[in-house]
């Protein structure tokens, strides 16, 4: 194998290998991306979905007059709007509530809806010792997230609280403050008034998950293409080696062809008279005779 031919084969093999590595990396990356898209599809949590009127979520509990009616898992965390007016007689604080590690209280109000029922609304958070801004007057539309009522077991203290303060947000407790029906839920205001900080919803709702088999199939397809590329690359390298070996005469059939054959000296040419055969006769004399 000449140096020039060897350099050509080496350069071709190296180029083929680099191209194969690049193609395989791209195909594997596409498969991973498709797998991530199709393995699990996560829908937006209910708190991030478009808002619906609160009556579509908690109207049953409010209209039934039974605060014990529980919310379903689909209702907790729903993004809702609450339209009505704040009850001026229900300007409350929920004691002992921390926000980012700082002690404080929740400002709590009750919005009376057009059907006469009420929806507890956590208006925001204030630091400890800071009075909450007054309740808004007139019609309001609160944009917030529905939360399940709190149980008495989360209260930090069982001591009697000052007037205007409560320990938990629960319709079962607030029915002692007002004389109208209350939804067995409360809403955290996502855009509180000046002087208040938004209270993150305790439960934003559960996102739904499902497998997307079409995207999973696409992921497998990309990886099959990557494997096929490797197979083609190995076959091409093998063919290159065999071609180089044939050119170098290292395999049967690769030997250079001999020059055109010439008649052997001992074989008479066609049409030529054969030379006489020299024999030795008796006495050592040569006996010349023609070949028959």
What does this structure look like?
This protein has 292 residues and is of the alpha+beta class. It has 2 domains: 3-41 and 211-248; 46-207, no CATH class. Helix content is 30%, strand content 20%. The protein is built from 4 helices and 12 strands, in the order H-E-E-H-E-E-E-E-E-E-H-E-E-H-E-E. A hairpin with a 5-residue loop joins strand 5 (104-112) and strand 6. Helix 1 (3-39) packs antiparallel against helix 4 (213-248). The radius of gyration is 47 Å and the shape is rod-shaped. It starts with a helix and ends with a strand. The model is unreliable at 1-7, 60-68 and 259-263 (pLDDT under 50).
List the helices and strands and how they pair.
Blueprint: H1 3-39, E1 41-42, E2 52-53, H2 55-64, E3 79-86, E4 92-94, E5 104-112, E6 118-127, E7 139-147, E8 165-166, H3 171-174, E9 186-189, E10 209-210, H4 213-248, E11 277-280, E12 286-289
Helix pairs in contact: 1-4
The termini sit apart by 53 Å
Secondary-structure element series: HEEHEEEEEEHEEHEE
Strand percent estimate: 15-25%
Computed over alpha carbons, the radius of gyration is: 47 Å
- Count of DSSP H/I helices: 4
Number of strands: 12
**Regions with little confidence, pLDDT below 50 for 5+ residues:** 1-7, 60-68, 259-263
Biggest sheet details: 5 strands, mixed, barrel
Mean pLDDT score: 78
Number of domains: 2
Structural class: alpha+beta
| Amount of helix | 25-40%
> Numbering strands along the chain, what is their spatial order in the largest sheet?
3-5-6-9-7
Tell me the overall shape: rod-shaped
């Amino acid at each position: 194998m000449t140096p020039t031919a060897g350099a050509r084969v080496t350069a071709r093999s190296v180029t083929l290998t680099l191209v194969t590595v690049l193609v395989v990396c791209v195909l594997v990356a596409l498969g991973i991306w498709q797998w991530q898209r199709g393995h699990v599809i996560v829908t937006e949590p209910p708190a991030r979905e478009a808002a619906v009127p609160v009556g579509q979520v908690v109207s049953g509990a409010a209209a039934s007059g039974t605060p014990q009616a529980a919310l379903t898992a689909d209702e907790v965390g729903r993004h809702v709007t609450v339209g009505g007016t704040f009850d001026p007689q229900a300007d409350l604080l929920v004691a002992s509530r921390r926000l980012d590690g700082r002690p404080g209280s929740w400002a709590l109000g009750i919005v009376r809806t057009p059907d006469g029922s009420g929806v507890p609304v956590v208006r925001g958070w204030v630091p400890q010792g800071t009075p909450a801004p007054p309740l808004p007057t007139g019609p309001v539309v609160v944009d917030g997230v529905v939360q399940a009522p709190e149980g008495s077991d989360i209260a930090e203290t069982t001591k009697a609280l000052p007037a205007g303060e409560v320990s938990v947000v629960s319709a079962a407790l607030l029915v002692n403050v007002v004389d109208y029906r209350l939804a067995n839920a409360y809403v955290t205001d996502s855009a509180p008034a000046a002087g208040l900080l938004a209270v993150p919803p305790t439960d934003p709702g559960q996102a739904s998950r499902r497998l997307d088999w079409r995207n999973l199939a696409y992921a497998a397809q990309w990886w099959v293409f990557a494997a096929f590329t490797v197979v083609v690359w190995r076959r091409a390298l093998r063919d290159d080696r065999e071609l180089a070996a044939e050119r170098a005469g290292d395999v049967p059939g690769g030997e250079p062809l001999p020059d055109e054959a010439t008649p052997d000296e001992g074989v008479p040419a066609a049409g030529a008279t054969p030379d006489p055969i020299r024999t030795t006769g008796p006495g050592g004399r040569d006996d010349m005779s023609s070949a028959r």
